[in-house]
Design a protein that fits this description.
The protein has 4 helices and 10 strands, in the order E-E-E-H-E-E-H-E-E-E-E-H-E-H. By secondary structure, it is α+β, with helices and mostly antiparallel strands. The protein is globular, with a radius of gyration of 17 Å.
Length: 172
């Protein structure tokens, strides 16, 4: 394990990861029932959180067998709303995914957002949203640590497949 990092395990998510020990895990919903969770690097004076949000999202039925169309539609939406938005191929825990990257205005400041999508099973995607102000003093340090968290993620893909076959497929 990396010095200065702690391991977090989320059985309902079928994943584990390493996070800086200085970051706060706001994860009661994920621990209790599988709800979303946040890893908070710090709070702004305005009480806004700088960090990462993890959530499991259902995939719309029209996108289950058409991931390319889902990505295309999301990319068009981001490009229209956030000029300069990009999408890149990524791999998390050996699973192929996408990372959308864009800046959003937040009043007088801008945030850089990186939104990761990983399809865990046909009906479920893991979304990881990371955000930091572009003018923050700790901008580079935050992204270095966020990248370390992303690269540390281990997804129990076999467990996802087994649960999908047991609980979802019989009902289709």
């Amino acid at each position: 394990m990396n010095p200065g990092f702690k391991e977090l395990i989320y059985p309902n998510y079928g994943l584990s990861l390493l996070t800086p020990v200085s970051w706060l895990a706001e994860d009661s919903p994920a621990v209790l029932a599988g709800g979303e969770f946040n890893l908070v690097s710090r709070y702004e004076d305005t009480q806004g959180a700088i960090g990462m949000n993890f959530r499991l999202r259902p995939v719309q039925p029209n996108y289950i067998n058409n991931l390319a169309k889902q990505i295309e539609n999301q990319q068009i939406t981001f490009e229209r709303n956030y000029p300069g938005a990009t999408v890149e191929d990524v791999s998390i825990s050996g699973l192929a995914g996408k990372m959308f990257k864009y800046e959003i205005p937040t009043g007088k400041r801008k945030m850089l957002v990186k939104l990761y999508w990983i399809r865990l099973v046909p009906d479920v995607q893991l979304q990881i949203l990371c955000a930091q102000y572009t003018d923050a003093e700790d901008f580079d340090q935050f992204w270095k640590e966020a990248d370390q968290v992303i690269s540390s993620i281990v997804i129990a893909f076999d467990s996802w497949q087994a649960r999908y076959k047991k609980h979802i497929l019989p009902n289709k």
